[in-house]
Every structure is written in structure tokens, then in C-alpha cells.
Design brief:
149 residues; alpha/beta; Immunoglobulin-like; 5-stranded mixed beta sheet; 3 helices; 17% helix; binds copper (I) ion
């Protein structure tokens, strides 16, 4: 209903047009062990949100692998500890970890992967972090994700 109204407004007033491309972002994980974003804001209109992780580096995933993992800030340390124990074969995540809201696979240089998640999984006042679960990478590779209000 609300979506139909937005679409109608978008057609009538092109300046107000809102497109599904606003419900997606791209983030880079580099050979320098960094993400190129510190914060991700999910627009309130998005029912689903897509994150595409690209690794523009050249190092293999065993050396400088990166994934993009989303969880509550409270769950992050345990997810990383269990992921570290799971090892590189599991992409440094415990298989089917229910605390993980969304994640890409572990990438090496030159690779990319996307994940789409339902924004109903997020609370407006929730405290969420995205991070890389490769051992020790989250010291640098983390940021906040929040729903726009
Ligand atoms: Cu990483």
C-alpha cells in the first residue's frame, strides 16, 4: 500500500522518485585490511537490502580473506570467536550460526559476492555492526549499520 503510493508519487513527481537501487550498496574490502565504509544506513522504504562486497586486492583468501557479516553488536565477539574456530574452510563462520543476520562468503582478491536480507530482521532502535570475521580483521574492519528513521 505504502509502496504503491510512493510509486505513484514517483511517477507524478520525478523529483521524488525512489528506486530499488537505493536498497543496495557496494563495499570494498582491501589488501590493506580495510573496508571503505564506516557506516551503512538502510533507508526506511526498503523491504529488502542488498550488500555487494568486492575485494579489489590480489591476495588469496587464506592470507587476506574478507567477508561481510551483520549481527547485533552484542553478538559480534562470540560470532568471531566461533568463526575463528570453524576455520577458513567454513569461511570463518560457524555453519548456520543463528546470530548472523546476513553474510557474504569469504573472498580473496578479485572476487565479489552479494547478500540480500529482509529489513524486518532489524529493529529501528537496534545496535548493529557489520564486520569481517577473518581472525583479527574486525579490529579494523567493522562499522555500524542502522535503519534510517
Ligand atoms: Cu577481512
Amino acid at each position: 500500500m505504502q509502496r504503491a503510493l510512493l510509486l505513484t508519487l514517483g511517477l507524478a513527481l520525478p523529483g521524488l522518485a525512489w528506486s530499488a537501487s537505493d536498497c543496495a550498496i557496494e563495499i570494498h574490502g582491501t589488501d590493506q585490511m580495510t573496508f571503505d565504509k564506516r557506516e551503512i544506513v538502510v533507508p526506511a522504504q526498503c523491504e529488502r537490502f542488498t550488500v555487494t562486497l568486492k575485494h579489489p586486492g590480489t591476495l588469496p583468501k587464506e592470507v587476506m580473506g574478507h567477508n561481510w557479516v551483520l549481527s547485533t553488536t552484542a553478538d559480534m565477539p562470540a560470532i568471531i570467536a566461533d568463526g575463528s574456530a570453524a576455520g577458513v574452510e567454513q569461511g570463518y563462520l560457524k555453519p548456520e550460526d543463528p546470530r548472523v543476520i546476513a553474510h557474504t562468503r569469504l573472498l580473496g582478491g578479485g572476487e565479489e559476492d552479494s547478500v540480500t536480507f529482509d529489513t524486518k530482521a532489524l529493529k529501528a532502535d537496534g545496535d548493529y555492526q557489520f564486520f569481517c570475521s577473518f581472525p583479527a580483521h574486525s579490529v579494523l574492519m567493522k562499522g555500524r549499520l542502522r535503519l534510517d528513521s
